[in-house]
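Ligand-bound model needed. zinc ion.
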Amino acid sequence: MSVTSSNLVNLAAKYMILKESRRSLRGQCPFHEDAGESLMISPDKNIFKCFGCGKEGGPAEFKFAIEQLNKA
Ligand SMILES: [Zn+2]
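Prediction:
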């Protein structure tokens, strides 16, 4: 399965705890020091957006950002 066709929710669930919030999922952003639950995932659109650090995109962007974290 290629990265672009992968399911963002399944991918993100490996790195963060996701909580259901209406039609979206929220969780503590793994990309910045998040005191709350700034990262939101839209399962319908298969995209994420963090209201704390502004990171956003699809499964490919999420995976890329995780890989950048692990290098640091
Ligand atoms: Zn963030």
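Strands lie at 18-21, 24-27, 39-42, 47-50, 56-57.
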